[in-house]
Amino acid sequence: MDASVEGIHYLLNKPLKATDKWTSKAFRGLKNALQRIKDPSTYLNIDTYRRAVKDINRVVEKSVESDRIKVSLGDYTDKRLSPLSINDLLYAARHFQENPFYPYFSKRLSGFLQHNGKLLFGFSINYLSQVLTAFAMMGFLKNVNPTVEIIAGGGLITSWMKRYKGLRCFQGVIDHMVPGPGEIPLLNMVGVKPERAFYTPSFNNFPWDSYLSPGYVVPYNTSTGCYWRRCRFCPEVAERTGYQQITKDEVREDLSKLRGEINPALFHITDNAISPNMLLSLTKNRIDTPWYGFVRPTKELTDTAFLEALKRSGCVMLKLGIESGSQDVLDMMNKGCDIKTISYVLKALHNAGIGTYVYLLFGTPWETEDKARETLDFVVEHERFIDFLNLAIFNLPVNSGEAEGIYTDDFYEGDLTLYKDFKHPKGWGRKEVRSFLDNVFKKEPSIRGILKRHPFFFSSNHAPFFVIHSRKGNVL
Ligand code: SF4
Hints:
Elements (H helix, E strand, L loop, with lengths): L2 H11 L7 H8 L1 H9 L7 H17 L6 E3 L4 E3 L7 H9 L7 H12 L6 E5 L3 H17 L4 E5 L1 H9 L12 E2 L5 H7 L27 E4 L2 E2 L10 H4 L5 E2 L2 H15 L3 E4 L6 H9 L6 E5 L8 H9 L2 E9 L3 H7 L5 H14 L2 E8 L6 H13 L6 E6 L2 E2 L10 E3 L8 E4 L7 H12 L3 H8 L6 H14 L4
Parallel strand pairs: 3-4, 4-5, 6-9, 9-10, 10-11, 11-12, 12-13
Antiparallel strand pairs: 1-2, 7-8, 14-16, 15-16
Helix pairs in contact: 2-4, 3-4, 5-7, 6-7, 12-13
The structure holds iron/sulfur cluster (SF4).
């Protein structure tokens, strides 16, 4: 089950007493807004899209009547409980009735509890916004039937286990925690001997028509870890995640099977970075469904013939972690990319008709304001070739081997914190970076133009639809 999408629809279907004009209008127009978000023509106009998303989000926010808990399409926050505190997580499990999703999950999970025999529940927890509700759900299950066994995995659990070595369970709530891919450990737990290292994901029970998108988007990994694994301060490196690549034949078979079963509008290749070899294989075996994913800006992506083949294979957009427009900063980060190649890649992708979603990272220990201005100049110079931009401020992962010699302090309050605050060695701290981004970078007219296209809340998940539909109408 996908409790996230079911929970959002539970909130959207609740009766709502609107106390202001916007909420009342958004609630009355909700059916319409939900239709618009699924209508491909909405992705021709960012303003129509924004209005629909803002109205849906307004109803979600206002359907939680609490001074303490705030829920939006993209987040869940509780003024009293931190998702990074063990005590607060245990509180959320014990006081599950306080969670705004309690009426939904108590009913939904009770259905499973009718089953006779041994009961195992697995929770995949990937984001901080999911964790307090996941603990409330697990607390509810244990309260109703203390013999159920609970297994937790997913990206966030993996990060916690890698950074806090002693963490193996949460007494009375989670019985087993599984880091990394969970299929094989889960099979072992239920006494089934795994026959292969990777299995084709099964999406049979997912409520496909409930997702807020103009077609089904199917996630698929061709690898786990990262084939490059050298960027300094990257969490993948700090967590020493091993790299495993699924064979090209298995990827081809899996994608073809999923295409036949689900008929997706889009495949999201969720690798940290799709390897050049896998890209080459994708060009040879056409997926016949549009797809997008993360890549490193390597020289292969400057080859026009290669990019045309990639485009024919269905590639509509590539996400690129460019991070900085300064060669010095890229070198110090160990990105393994040179700025000239990055420039060629952006131009070549644009010319091939493949959308670009560029990620920039400010405030790394090697950056100064001058270097950040080099990034600004680079973006201005390449404005025509960048469809979407994501701006982030650097966080220092806990347990990073690179942190030696840098003064650090706890960044968030809580015993499960993932990042540390640090004193920037060149005085280019978070406050200065934020001020630069707000008052200089985002004020630049050409950059403002790119940022205006940013899809609210759904960001890169909806961006490919803008590329697909607006390129058909030649708008972007
Ligand atoms: S390419 Fe991305 S995932 Fe790989 S090491 Fe660099 S930052 Fe990390």
